[in-house]
Amino acid sequence: MIIAIDGPAGSGKSTIAKIVAEKLHFRYIDTGSMYRSVAWKSLQKKVTLGDEDAVANIARETKIELVPGENGQSVFIDGENITSQLKEETISRGAAIVAAQPIIREIMTAKQRELGKQGQVVMDGRDIGTVVFPQADKKFFMDADPEERGRRRFTELKDKKQIANADLVTIIEQVKQRDQEDRNRKIAPLKQAEDAILIDTTHLSIDQVVEQIMKTINSGP
Ligand code: C5P
For residue 118, how far is its CA from the centre of ligand 1 (angstroms)? Predict the structure, then answer.
């Protein structure tokens, strides 16, 4: 069984996907962390993010391991645990840039399909229900007002003390800009799959969203 949860930044999809996976005893896979990993390694190697061939080489040669852990998932790049560095804003921005490149998407999509092949997974991202697993058993698309999503992102960064020189207004703008890029890119844009269930989380608690998703899953095919 494959459960696809897509949506924009701050929609709550990672938090929810993690809890749903735990409840089902499924594996949780955060595909955003894969694009973030490629951006992270490219920046480390001082590769220009817009240089598709160079970034593609990085994507091919980098060993990205997603290890189930206490916080859902830890990310190891070439054996180094870099989980805590991946949420930084430069990496968010970089991930959106590399994610717009067709070769990178091809490499990442293949890796994601390989991971999903074992089944029993909850996978979150932007294109899981549309491109990676169009045949997923259950598909959800989570959304929320941009201001609310910006506020959530701001709180997350503040909690993790990763908020160098940023304020709420700036974060809301960054979230909106990343959405625009993800929605408007030519390949695998962020959009709701026709058969995905839309959940607007703006005024819902985490528990309410989890309950709605679990009810749908338990209701059968
Ligand atoms: O989900 P997260 O915010 O970690 O994703 C970071 C970026 O990676 C997104 O803004 C998007 O550009 C890209 N992404 C993608 N497809 C996915 C997951 C993430 O394009 N399946």
Answer: 22
pLDDT digits (tens, 9 = 90+) for 118-154: 899 999 999 999 999 999 999 999 999 999 999 998 8
Q: By the 8 A CB rule, do 155 and 18 touch?
A: no
| Ligand 1 atom 4, closest CA | 32
Q: Do residues 5 and 13 touch, judged by C-beta distance below 8 A?
A: yes
**CA-based end-to-end distance of the chain:** 11
Domain positions in the chain are 2-208
Q: How far is the CA of 95 from the centre of ligand 1 (A)?
A: 6
* pLDDT of 108 strictly over 70: yes
Cβ of 32 closer than 6 Å to ligand 1, yes or no, is yes
Paired with 197 in beta bridges are 140
Please state the pTM of the whole predicted model: 0.94
Task: Output the residue whose Cα is nearest ligand 1's atom 6.
Answer: 32
Provide the CATH topology of domain 2-208.
Rossmann fold (3.40.50)
Q: How far apart are CA 58 and CA 2, in angstroms?
A: 28
